[in-house]
Amino acid sequence: VLEHFLQEGRISALMWEVCQQQAQAGSPELQEDLLNKIVCLPDHVSNKLQGKHPAVFFPHNYFPLLGGAVIQVLQQISDSLRGGLDCSISFVSHVLGKVCVHGRQKEILSVLVPRLTDLTKSDCIWQRICWRLVECVPDRWMEAVILGFVQRAPGADVLSRLLGNLVVKNKKAQFVVTQKVLLLQYGHTTAVLQNLLGYLSLDGLRRALLIKVLQELLETWGSSSAVKHSPPEQQQYISKAILICLSHLKEPEIESCRQELLTSMMEGVKCHLDSNLPQIRRLGMIVAESISLKINTDGPVLKFQVKVLMKFMPDVQGLEEIKALNQMIQGVIANAALPLVWEGNKNSGTAAPVMPDEESDAELDSDDDLIPYDMSEDKELKTEAPVYIRECIEVLIGSEDVDKWEATVKALESLVRKNPAATREVSVELAKILLHLEEKTCVEGFVELRQRAQVAVLTTDPIPVAKYLTSQFYSLNYSLRQRMDILDVLVLAAQELSYPKSRGKTKHSGAPKPCIQLLPGSDSSKDWRRIVDERIKSKTRRFATGQSQVELASGPNEFNSVAGHFFFPLIQHFDRPLTTFDLLGEDDLVLGRLVHTLAILMYLAVNTVAVAAMGKALLEFVWALRFHTDSYVRQGLLSCVSSMLLSVPTERLLEDMAEELLETQSWLGDVMEKDPDGDCRRLALQNLLLMENLKKKL
């Protein structure tokens, strides 16, 4: 009977009767019961019939049918109003609100939004009906209804027709649109943001809210606490919202808040450039450029080399939409008359004036009689590189010959590897010179050449050089760049020492596949047997041929005896601030690099003698910093836990660190549930799975 009731369209007649009763003050208890039955009918039927009910009661069939019934009731209300009769729309609003709050916005609004879009195009009565439909939704269901309309409206103009000035009339709707969707949530698409902010910009009453929203977004964007504690995804979301708001501002509005925009830009770009995460820094530069371009239409604008940064660091996700929005904004500002910045700012510099040909010829008349020398066979004079280590030291310290200095820098690595005995005599002195070496000329790949030379010295004489470098890491009068260089060199050298069999040898991917190569012009038949054998070999399928690949040469792990010299000095003095260096203060970028370095050293120390002591010390280090505010540091700490679980033998973990592991497990559970950074949550889950695997092994 219920199935027949639905198929005959009687549910619209039922709702229409309730609407008429509401106009005549009908029973509220009956209306509430009917509301629950209409909205929850699929659940009631499913509970009674235990899944053996007709297809019309499936939610994906029932709620579109209910949407069609709502349209029929609204049509009757429209006819009633045109006929001068009173009727109420609040029951239909309640049905819509309750369906949406139950999570069925997609099913019902996929029917309602297209029909209402067509009906409100040119009919003012339908527009008023639609506005009244959403205005009568109770506050407790308002958020679900607004989000449903915003997500499914094909554009801001359609959304404006469907919602009217709802955000001005309803405080709950205003809170959802201007606060919750923009500042408290960040999972919505760019299209949703464009719909929402475009809707605010299309009416004079709502434009005041647009400016208010922009100010609050900029306040959040410029808050150092928000930048530090909110995930990168939320930062990207807020940046997109700011860029869209800027594209909707008009010149008088910009003039009224120009100083506020400038102040917010300066505060925000500082917070973002102070971040340890590259994607946050780039987001800050992009938004600051857009604000500067918008407020400084006549004067100079802020310009970062963001395109260059993108080129060298292409691994950052989520910036494509930002770049597209930035293009859109700059196109709006320039009225599409100038080429976009992201297409390559080829004409940004001032072009040199080009002299006419006649003037150039006149200027060169005096030199016409001079015949140029023939320099076609001239060869560039190459400076010979030093052949002794001590000679290299002398050149690097005091030579004024730039060519010889450059040749020394390029040859130093190979010279160190070829002369290990001579290098050990002066290893610490050479390490000191390389650590302080600055580029005298424009040498291609200078940083890499210097780093490779440092790694070569460290691997040649590990213990004294490692002692020197780790002691200098906590010394005075070093830049942050030099301290991070020390960490990089330690990691690369440890990696090389832990895989000694691959040092100085070319890595082969495997034995070459058999192939036939006939030499052109050779009709000799002396190699016919080889050719036939290769052809047979290439066509033959072999199911068991033994070990086909050449076994790599094995050897002792050279990192085994020196792992402690790399690791323990780095972990000793992290909590002692210096005059120019405070790891627990403002130098958290270096702290993050240190933590990641310790994680790598721990991982490379697997199967070494000192691995258990290193694991215990590392776990204590992690425990001291586990509540650090910077997400980059927390990611490194979680990587340390992973390295410790993978490197330390299970028996030693349980014997030496059982209580610490239980406390760590509890902390990891909190990180997985509560940490704002997605990478931290993922790493915490990974560590918990590693712990579960250890339990299964036991």
UniProtKB/TrEMBL annotation:
Biological processes per GO annotation: 'de novo' cotranslational protein folding
Domain Telomere length regulation protein conserved: residue ranges: 386-494
Places the protein is found: Cytoplasm; Membrane; Nucleus
Keyword annotations of the record: Cytoplasm, Membrane, Nucleus
GO cellular component terms, A-Z: cytosol; membrane; nucleus
GO molecular-function terms, A-Z: Hsp90 protein binding; telomeric DNA binding
Domain TELO2 ARM repeat: 206-300
Family the entry assigns: Belongs to the TEL2 family.
Protein name per its UniProtKB record: Telomere length regulation protein TEL2 homolog
